[in-house]
Amino acid sequence: MAFSDRSQRGSPASAPGAGKAGGSGQADAAGRTVLQRELRITGSILTDGEIEFHGEVDGVVCAKGVTIGSGARFKGEIIAENATIAGHAAGRITARKIRLAEGSEFEGDLIYQRLAIEEGAEFDGNVMRKKEDSAWVDITKTFEIPGVELTPDAARAVQALREEAKDLAVETSSG
Q: Given CB 3.0 to 4.6 Å as the disulfide criterion, which of 86, 106, 148, 173 pairs with 101?
């Protein structure tokens, strides 16, 4: 299952309920998609914007900004400009800026340019700092960072999302 929101392509597809009043996900005043506690997602999510999770997610998330809220659970891979973990997460995060908030728990790999681990956050895993590089400018467009290899699950998800984006571009231009 892959959800995407490629607004520059014209016909965005998004998670059911996302951005709809009364649904499991709503866009807040800043345009960030907020997925509520009762929502459980398994699969891949792609958005040019920011997304905040309060439920359970198992999969790959590619976004400009990702927040795993307090009480939320995430398992998988995040590729983002900015990632904030306030709940429980396991897997791998590749982001320019990563923040593990007080009370958060993270187990896995962090690939970052700037990292903040607040007092009271729990971290068990590996870290790899990537220096300033123009490739960090917008990883949500290419999903590639020199010197960083995607996990097999993330590589499959990114390929599927790229194919979906191509299909949307064809549908938009022909329709």
A: 86
Residues, the chain, total? 175
If one compares 98 and 18, the residue with the highest pLDDT of the two is 98
Residues 12 and 35: their CA atoms lie apart, in Å, by 17
For the chain, give every domain's residue range.
2-174
Q: Which two tokens stand for residue 138?
A: 């917008």
Q: Residue 138: helix, strand or coil by DSSP? A: coil
Closest of 134, 153, 155 to residue 143, by C-alpha: 155
Closest among 39, 62, 65 to 51, alpha carbons compared: 65
Q: What are 133's two structure tokens?
A: 């590089």
Phi, psi of 82 (to 5 degrees): -135, 135
User: Residue 128: phi, psi to the nearest 5?
Assistant: -140, 120
How confident is residue 11, by pLDDT bands cut at 50, 70 and 90? very low
Average of pLDDT values for 108-135? 87
* Helix or strand run (H / E) with residue 153: helix 152-174
Q: For 145, what's the count of Cα atoms within 13 Å in the CB-facing half-sphere?
A: 26
